[in-house]
Amino acid sequence: MSHIALAPLLVAMVMGEGCCPPDAWEGVVGLMIGSVKGKNPHLTKGVQMWHQNVTLGMIAIEEELLVDGLKMKLKVIQDYNKKNEYFIKDGKCTKMTLVPSIPRCLPENATLVENTYFGAGSENVAVKIYRFNTRGLETYFTVTANDCIPVMEIASGTLPNAQVMKVSEYTGISLGVKDPSVLNIPAICQSVEDSAGYVPIMSRWRRSDFH
Question: pTM of the prediction?
Fold first, then answer.
């Protein structure tokens, strides 16, 4: 398995028009990421159960992925209070230093591309599509028109170590976190040290593009 360092990517939503989602929400994120490093192509696809509470400074993501054909199941917890990110897999925990601030809003360089809708007739949902560039990636991010709830993300570009393209779809979004314990740091992570140089293949890709 290739551990491509996708670290610079997964953060980004914007204050462009004050587009900020609710502080606490959870839902299902389906994603597919294609990348090419040198002449070697890689494909990651799967489902994330996303739980976020900005007020508490915590995000938890439960992932079931297929990475270059290999199944991977893990949980990621991001603690923005202590600036730590934990990766729990196969009963083991790895810790990394987290970026300074929790994702809250779309980036300031986001521009509104289109006001449109999904569906037809009375069965439609009004959305806004924003475009912005972050760390060499061009991103189109679709949110609900009224509440800035994430709907879809398409990002592509060149990172220092690879060319990448990512597509994410957000479904089943509900406000609040039904089971707050999902955000708790497990006991196996309490005494682990930072793993310098260890970058899981999905590291920064797993955050939405909200800043």
Answer: 0.83
